[in-house]
Amino acid sequence: KVIEGLSGAPASVRAQTIRALALELERLANHVGDIGALATDVGFLPTASFCGRLRGDYLNMTAALCGSRFGRGLARPGGVLFDLAPPLAEEMLARLKGIEGNTLGALDLFFDAPSVLSRFEGRGRLSRSVAEDLGLVGVAAKACAVPRDSRFFHPTGVYRHLFDDLITEETGDAMARAKVRSREISVSIELLRRIMDNLPEGPIRAPVGPLKGNALAISLVEGWRGEVLHVGLTDNDGRLRRYKIVDPSSITGAGWPWRCAMSRFPIFPCATRVLTSRTVGLICNDLENGAGRRGIGFIRLFISLLAQRNEPKKGPPVSLVPPLAGGPVLLDAAGALQTRLRLKQCKALFRQPLRCSAAGQWDFDCI
């Protein structure tokens, strides 16, 4: 879209509609996969198993559209490379009808289970004021009652007249983030149905001319994590001088320390799942399921890598995570960790428990 803006050659209405179709399929696949990952993190296996298969069904619909389960090769400057023929649209609608029932059934199992509700409600809470101060986007913002969706506030193409369901929740906890995903699944399924029932005629790709000189173009697309920003700037000769991409994960990551500050390790995966990081879930599932020493080892490794990345160049080491009132400090010696962690010591690291002193400071001497 940035190249189209810089060249003055917008994509056709049909091409923009097919792009929106692929975007909603991607959103469905990842939201369903995230719900399954959340179910895995709290040990609720029925939904975890169902969502793993259902995610594959949505990915296979994308493969039927363009030959790639991840949509590779579909979008191009000027339009798309693959058209949606009427027989394929009818087949995809029939598939969607069957997948929708299974998806809603898996979600009902998940949100009706008392064990799931008790693990999610009130966990990893983030206030609206903090979310606005951090500039969060996507699921993280919507779960804190922050209305932020580029499909609604900056619509293009088919979203101008087909999208009017801005999803938000009020509580800002892990349950709110799960509910945002669940409700967006229903909205995306209905949007897919309306798109394929009203597919406009026209070409799928237009020629793209040379880029304009001294021009700036900005593209904002609502991905499944949140808004994805592309900015392009040309020089006097019409060549790209600067190109910047801002992924929503780089913004939502700012809320991670705040959620962890109010959470203990047993609810750590629920509080941080908005980052869509399987590493986080695996670390704490391991810790909760009995392999405590190995789980602590992975957590120590994870925290130490953060310390190496964020170590201040001068002054005393600082904590990366705000401490709990009266509780232990998760990280207090970032500089010491950088030189003391060695790959050859990882095996011994996983075997030794992490000690906490009476003053509430983690003891990393065993590293």
| Share of β-strand residues | 5-15%
- Average predicted confidence as pLDDT: 76
Total strands: the figure is 7
**Rg result:** 23 Å
Low-confidence stretches: 264-268, 274-298, 316-367
What is the approximate shape? globular
Distance between the termini: 50 Å
Task: Give the helices and strands as they follow along the chain.
Answer: HHHEEHHHHHHHEEEHHHHHHHEE
The major β-sheet equals:
3 strands, antiparallel
In DSSP terms (H or I, runs of 4 or more residues), the helix count works out at: 17
Fraction of residues in helices?
40-55%
Protein structure class: mainly alpha
Strand order in the largest sheet = 3-4-5
How do the helices and strands line up, and which of them pair or pack?
Blueprint: H1 2-7, H2 13-41, H3 45-66, E1 75-76, E2 79-80, H4 86-112, H5 114-120, H6 128-134, H7 138-142, H8 150-153, H9 159-162, H10 174-197, E3 216-222, E4 227-234, E5 240-246, H11 249-252, H12 256-261, H13 268-272, H14 278-288, H15 292-310, H16 334-340, H17 346-351, E6 355-356, E7 362-363
Fold and architecture overview:
The chain is mainly alpha-helical and 367 residues long. Helices cover 53% and strands 8% of the residues. The chain is built from 17 helices and 7 strands. The protein has helices at 2-7, 13-41, 45-66, 86-112, 114-120, 128-134, 138-142, 150-153, 159-162, 174-197, 249-252, 256-261, 268-272, 278-288, 292-310, 334-340, 346-351; strands at 75-76, 79-80, 216-222, 227-234, 240-246, 355-356, 362-363. A 3-stranded antiparallel sheet has the order 3-4-5. Strands 1-2 form a two-stranded antiparallel ribbon. Helix 3 packs antiparallel against helix 4 (86-112), helix 4 (86-112) runs antiparallel to helix 10 (174-197) and helix 14 runs antiparallel to helix 15 (292-310). The longest helix has 29 residues, at 13-41.
